[in-house]
From TrEMBL:
SUPFAM superfamilies: tRNA-guanine transglycosylase. InterPro entries: TGT-like_sf (IPR036511), tRNA_ribo_trans-like (IPR002616). The gene is Qtrt1. This is TGT ribosyltransferase. It comes from Loxia leucoptera (White-winged crossbill). GO terms for molecular function: tRNA-guanosine(34) queuine transglycosylase activity.
Length: 275
């Protein structure tokens, strides 16, 4: 299994690409929505693709961008055509269709898996996700260099999720992402949905559980058959002054640590704990 740090705009916050590589990271994420609107996919392409833009020689994965538009932008509108929205930094209205998403991800040029999917809102979006997958497959200009993962939707409804899985596994794609989860639902329901998904997805292709990064969830979901994970949790936690250690988390902004010069974890070999 692999955990992938999130570099939304081409960098993991608080870390350089060289530091990520030194930690053993061999794949990280970029976001189609953010990179496509600022600085724009054409500028990234001219800089040598996302690899050149980041100075990153290893694998990359980019997402479809639809989730960010619906969750972050109040004035976005989802239709069969795509997601229509006003860019947060100003400018003309943009339509991000499956074809446009693939065009941007092809221009970003990452070696890894661009993803195709619909913002989670079953039951309406579940069949639409399948139709959008077909449009993405047809529009994909670099299938030999970039692997396209299908995003399985269906929320917490077993029948909807199974219906989506049955349809998507009929398409010849290199891997599958499990979407529509990790949104605050009860753990028992979340784990049941993950188990249902992994039981019915091909075992000989990667099964990527999106947006999961809590330690307990990683252990449980690896046991349930998931191969890939991503989450902003580690970097976001660090930015707010917390350190993740084997016995839990330390709130480093707590007054009791103000004059404590000991390493965070004396048994850890990371650069921070070695000082």
């Amino acid at each position: 299994p692999v955990f992938m740090p999130v570099g939304t705009r081409g960098t993991a916050k608080g870390l350089t690409a060289a530091q990520l590589a030194a930690l053993g990271c061999r794949i990280c994420l970029g976001n189609t929505f953010h990179l496509g609107t600022r600085p724009g996919s054409e500028l990234v392409r001219r800089s040598g693709g996302l690899h050149g833009f980041m100075d990153w020689p290893h694998n990359l994965l980019t997402d479809s961008g639809g989730f960010q538009m619906v969750s972050l932008l109040e004035l976005s509108e989802v239709s069969e055509e795509g997601v229509r929205f006003q860019p947060p930094h100003g400018g003309e209205e943009i339509l991000l269709s499956p074809e446009k998403s693939m065009e941007i991800q092809n221009a970003l040029g990452q070696r890894g898996g661009p993803k195709s999917g619909d913002p989670p809102d079953p039951p309406e979006t579940t069949p639409r996700s399948v139709r959008w997958l077909d449009r993405c497959v047809a529009a994909h200009a670099r299938p030999e260099q970039q692997l396209l993962f299908a995003i399985v939707q269906g929320g917490l409804e077993p029948e909807l999720r199974l219906r989506c899985i049955r349809a998507m596994t009929q398409r010849d794609v290199p891997g599958f992402a499990i979407g529509g989860l990790s949104g605050g639902e009860a753990k028992a329901r979340f784990w049941r949905a993950v188990k249902l998904s992994t039981e019915h997805l091909p075992r000989d292709k990667p099964r990527y559980l999106m947006g999961v990064g809590y330690a307990t969830d990683l252990v449980v979901c690896v046991a349930l058959g998931c191969d890939m994970f991503d989450c902003v949790f580690p970097t976001r936690t660090a930015r707010f002054g917390s350190a993740l250690v084997p016995w839990g988390s330390l709130q480093l902004k707590n007054q009791r640590f103000a004059k404590d010069f000991r390493p965070i974890d004396a048994d850890c070999g990371c650069p921070t704990c070695q000082r």
